[in-house]
Structure prediction request, 212 residues.
Amino acid sequence: MELNIKVCGITREQDLQALVQYGVNYAGFIFYERSPRLVTGKLDAATVRSTTGIKKAGVFVDEDLQSVQQKVADYGLDLVQLHGNETPEYCAAIRKVVPVVKAFRIGEQVSWQELAPFIPVSDYFLFDTAVGKSYGGTGQQFNWDLLKSYPFSHPFFLSGGIGPEHAAALAELELPALFAVDVNSRFETAPGVKDMEKVQAFVGTLRGPQYY
Prediction:
């Protein structure tokens, strides 16, 4: 199965349009106030909402439920990615409105059974690297070998420190539940400013030369 590709931390319209052109599946927009890639004030809701040809994911960290629901409507979000300490009950409430990606940060080891309560209330998991108290965008990678023991069929996004040089290794990963790869900081010239040549080459390596 062909890997889906998500590029997160989009803050510029030209980058968003380029993702559509390159056949990227998902664009990620960060609504976490403390992120240097915060989309609010940089890319207006109407522009995002009117963009077609790509699925739009909103990234939130312990956000007020009504605020998330409002941004889903304003920005025309196709799914919501929850990166904080959201409960299964919270995920279930969001999922009544839009599909849910529940993110988990992975350190040196992982207890998969702790994720089980989130399976019925999410559509996907996302695995990112645990680095202190940060909520992603660290540019650091966790040990992918840990994923070999993943016991569920629940599909997941793989994130955390993925750069252009990892494209070949990603294409060779044999993980049945791996649904998508999520890239961000390693494809930037500055926070929220993507190097689209790197993105295009990465897509081409994963998908084939017809995407160059």
Remarks:
- The chain has one domain: 4-211.
- The CA atoms of residues 23 and 211 lie 8 Å apart.
- The two ends are 20 Å apart (CA to CA).
- The first strand starts at residue 4 and ends at 7.
